[in-house]
Amino acid sequence: MRILGLIPMRAGSKGIPGKNKKLLCGKPLMQYTIEAALASQLLTDVVVSTEDAELATLATKLGAEVPFIRPARLAEDTTPSIDVVAHALEALDDLYRNYNAVCLLQVTTPFRTAVHIDAAITQFKNGTHEALVSVQEVPHVYNPHWVFEKDKSGILRIATGEATIISRRQDLPKAYIRDGAIYITKTPTILYRKTLLGSNLGCIELSDYNNVNLDTELDWAVAENHIHNFD
Q: Are residues 215 and 108 in contact, defined by beta-carbon separation less than 8 angstroms?
């Protein structure tokens, strides 16, 4: 199975200005993801999608390919990820490069490793799902069966729609959130169904992994602290 490792990045970032090239403990943020992707044994190619010439040059120096430049219209704050991934597949198809699936690796989750990537790909290849995402278990205090929503009258209702609450923590079913580290999706699902998740979604819970999703300066400080403690 030919699997494209796709790393999207753009110049515009409001939460952390210039974050993709900003140094995180001495390394450009993008380098963490590029190095993990290049160390994978199961990715066919590692390609960066960007609209920015400076980011493209740096990514190339770090060993990734930048065989096309993304149009600026696909690098806005509101641009859906699916449009970026579909454009990459179409641009590579124009270069006679085809893939069975895409492994999307976001720069903002820098601590996933090649081991995590290959574990996710192996599970995906051995399964029947059209897409697979990495997840983290939700702490029981935030389990959706214990979350309430207000209705139009201001009355609290259980978010799951149940009439009665599950009273014991031990009886709660496990719940998960996407952690943003790994998305793997079959090419037809991306191009023809226009979704990264599909209707038959699998998941992998990453182990030995500190999940940090870099959206704010506080997130950046947490990431730096993690690296210092790890070292």
A: yes
| 94: exposed, middle or buried (Cβ count in 10 Å: 0-12, 13-18, 19+) | exposed
Domains of the chain, each with CATH number or no CATH: 3-136+177-230 (3.90.550.10), 139-173 (no CATH)
Spatial distance between the Cα atoms of 202 and 140, rounded to a whole number of angstroms: 22
- Tokens representing 186 are 């079959």
Question: With 80 as the cut, is the pLDDT of residue 7 above it?
Answer: yes
Q: Is the pLDDT of residue 207 over 80?
A: no
Q: What is the pLDDT of residues 46-57, one digit of tens each?
A: 999 999 999 999
Helical ranges in the chain per DSSP H: 29-39, 53-61, 81-94, 114-126, 187-193, 217-230
- What tens digit of pLDDT does each residue of 107-160 get? 999 999 999 999 999 999 999 999 999 999 999 999 999 999 999 999 999 999
Rounded to whole angstroms, the Cα distance separating 98 from 94 reads 9
pTM: predicted TM-score of the whole model, two decimal places: 0.93
Q: Is the separation of the CB atoms in 204 and 182 below 8 Å?
A: yes
CA distances from 18 to 21, 61, 108, 172 (A): 6, 18, 12, 42
Main-chain phi, psi angles of 181, to 5 degrees? -80, -40
How many C-beta neighbours within 10 Å does residue 98 have?
A: 12
Interatomic CA distance for residues 109 and 178, integer angstroms = 12
Say which amino acid occupies 141. V
CB–CB of 36/134 below 8 Å?
A: no
Measured from the Cβ of residue 72, the count of other Cβ atoms closer than 10 Å reads 13
